[in-house]
Amino acid sequence: MHLQNNEQQYQVSLQAQDNYKVIDSNHQEHLAKLSGQLRANLRLAVGDYIVGIPQQDFVLVKQLLPRKSVLQRQNSGEAQHAQVIAANLDYIFITMSLNQDFNLARLDRYTTLVWDSGASPVIVLTKADLISPELLAERQAQVAENAFGIPILVTAQDQPEQVETIFAPYLEAEQNVAFVGSSGVGKSTLVNLLLGDNAIKTKTIRADDDKGRHTTTTRALYVLANGAKIIDTPGIRAVGVAGVSQAATDQSFQDIVNLAQQCRFSDCQHQSEPGCAVKAAIAAGQLAPERLVSYQKLQVERQYDGLSSRQIEQTKVERLFKDVGGFKTFKKTLKKK
Ligand SMILES: Nc1nc2c(ncn2[C@@H]2O[C@H](COP(=O)(O)OP(=O)(O)OP(=O)(O)O)[C@@H](O)[C@H]2O)c(=O)[nH]1
Ligand SMILES: [Mg+2]
Ligand SMILES: [Zn+2]
C-alpha cells in the first residue's frame, strides 16, 4: 500500500459507539476521528486497519483498508443490520464455561458465525475447576464430537500458569485474535492472564449462579509483548446468525450434511420424508436429535436474511402453513369452504 506524505497506517484498538482509538506501528494509542465524508456511512470496528493523518491531539481517519476477515452478527432490528464485532482476526476463541453456560446448541451457533467470518475457530472451555473430573471428561467428549477438528482448550482459574502455554500457538507475533462468548464465562479473565496484568475489569459473580453481568462494555484491543493483538468483547446476549452463508452452516454440521447425501430426496428437509438418512441415524442412536434441531433452527434463521420485518412475518406465516401447501393455497382452501 502506498502512503501519501504524512499519512500513516493504524489499527483500531477501541470502539465505543462512534468513539475510536487507534494504535500506531509502535503500539502507541491515539484518539481517532473519521473525516467528514466517512462519518456518514462508515463505522469502524476493532481490528480494522486504516490510513490516517496525525493531528495535534487525534488521528484523522481517511481510509479503511480492506478487511481480511469480518466477525459480525445480525441485529434483530427492522433493517436486519449486520453489526461488525471485529475485523482482521486470525483466530476467534469461542469461550464457554463448563458449568451453567455449557450449551452445545449455542456452541454450534458461535462456530457457524466464526466460520462465516473467515477466521479460524478455537473452542475454549473455562471454569474446569468448578465441575467434577467425570463431568469434565463427559463434556469435553461431547464438544469434541460436535467440533470436527476445531482445537479445544480447557482452562481453570486455579491453574493460571497453563493458560500462557496452551494459548501460545495462537498468539504468534502480529496475529489478531478475539474472545467471544456469553457474559460471565471468563473472557476478560483469560485476557488478563495472557496480558500478565490486571488491566481489564472482571466482576465477581455470585457463587450459585454464573449469570455474569456485562462487565466488559467496549470492544478493545490489547497488544502482547511480541506484537500479537488480543480483542476482548462484551458477552453477546443472543447470537444472530441470519445472513451467514450456507457453507458456514454446513461446515459446522458436517455430520448432518454427510448423512443428507444418503437421503432418498435431494431436497429432503429431514422431517417426515421417506428414506431420510438423517432420521435413520437418529433412530439408530448415531446422531443426537438435538443436533438436527439446532441445524434446522439455523436453516430457518438463515432464510430471514435480508428481509424486512414485514417480509419476515410473511415468511413465518408461509412456514406455518407449509404443510397445507403455503399460505395462499390455505386461503384459497378457506374460500372454497
Ligand atoms: N472458578 C472460576 N471462575 C472463573 C474462571 N474464569 C473466570 N471466572 C470468574 O467468572 C467471573 C466473570 O469473569 P469475566 O472474565 O469478567 O467474564 P467475561 O466473559 O469477561 O464477562 P463479560 O465481560 O460480562 O462478557 C469472574 O468472577 C471470574 O473470576 C475459572 O476458570 N474458574
Ligand atoms: Mg469481560
Ligand atoms: Zn433427510
TrEMBL record:
<feature type="domain" description="CP-type G">
    <location>
        <begin position="81"/>
        <end position="239"/>
    </location>
</feature>
<feature type="binding site">
    <location>
        <position position="263"/>
    </location>
    <ligand>
        <name>Zn(2+)</name>
    </ligand>
</feature>
<feature type="domain" description="EngC GTPase">
    <location>
        <begin position="87"/>
        <end position="237"/>
    </location>
</feature>
<dbReference type="GO" id="GO:0046872">
    <property type="term" value="F:metal ion binding"/>
</dbReference>
<dbReference type="InterPro" id="IPR030378">
    <property type="entry name" value="G_CP_dom"/>
</dbReference>
<dbReference type="GO" id="GO:0005737">
    <property type="term" value="C:cytoplasm"/>
</dbReference>
<dbReference type="GO" id="GO:0042274">
    <property type="term" value="P:ribosomal small subunit biogenesis"/>
</dbReference>
<feature type="binding site">
    <location>
        <begin position="126"/>
        <end position="129"/>
    </location>
    <ligand>
        <name>GTP</name>
    </ligand>
</feature>
<dbReference type="Pfam" id="PF03193">
    <property type="entry name" value="RsgA_GTPase"/>
</dbReference>
<comment type="subunit">
    <text>Monomer. Associates with 30S ribosomal subunit, binds 16S rRNA.</text>
</comment>
<protein>
    <recommendedName>
        <fullName>Small ribosomal subunit biogenesis GTPase RsgA</fullName>
        <ecNumber>3.6.1.-</ecNumber>
    </recommendedName>
</protein>
<dbReference type="GO" id="GO:0003924">
    <property type="term" value="F:GTPase activity"/>
</dbReference>
<comment type="similarity">
    <text>Belongs to the TRAFAC class YlqF/YawG GTPase family. RsgA subfamily.</text>
</comment>
<keyword id="KW-0699">rRNA-binding</keyword>
<feature type="binding site">
    <location>
        <position position="276"/>
    </location>
    <ligand>
        <name>Zn(2+)</name>
    </ligand>
</feature>
<keyword id="KW-0862">Zinc</keyword>
<keyword id="KW-0690">Ribosome biogenesis</keyword>
<keyword id="KW-0378">Hydrolase</keyword>
<keyword id="KW-0694">RNA-binding</keyword>
<feature type="binding site">
    <location>
        <position position="268"/>
    </location>
    <ligand>
        <name>Zn(2+)</name>
    </ligand>
</feature>
<keyword id="KW-0342">GTP-binding</keyword>
<feature type="binding site">
    <location>
        <begin position="181"/>
        <end position="189"/>
    </location>
    <ligand>
        <name>GTP</name>
    </ligand>
</feature>
<keyword id="KW-0963">Cytoplasm</keyword>
<dbReference type="InterPro" id="IPR010914">
    <property type="entry name" value="RsgA_GTPase_dom"/>
</dbReference>
<keyword id="KW-0479">Metal-binding</keyword>
<comment type="function">
    <text>One of several proteins that assist in the late maturation steps of the functional core of the 30S ribosomal subunit. Helps release RbfA from mature subunits. May play a role in the assembly of ribosomal proteins into the subunit. Circularly permuted GTPase that catalyzes slow GTP hydrolysis, GTPase activity is stimulated by the 30S ribosomal subunit.</text>
</comment>
<dbReference type="InterPro" id="IPR027417">
    <property type="entry name" value="P-loop_NTPase"/>
</dbReference>
<feature type="binding site">
    <location>
        <position position="270"/>
    </location>
    <ligand>
        <name>Zn(2+)</name>
    </ligand>
</feature>
<dbReference type="InterPro" id="IPR004881">
    <property type="entry name" value="Ribosome_biogen_GTPase_RsgA"/>
</dbReference>
<dbReference type="GO" id="GO:0019843">
    <property type="term" value="F:rRNA binding"/>
</dbReference>
<keyword id="KW-0547">Nucleotide-binding</keyword>
<dbReference type="GO" id="GO:0005525">
    <property type="term" value="F:GTP binding"/>
</dbReference>
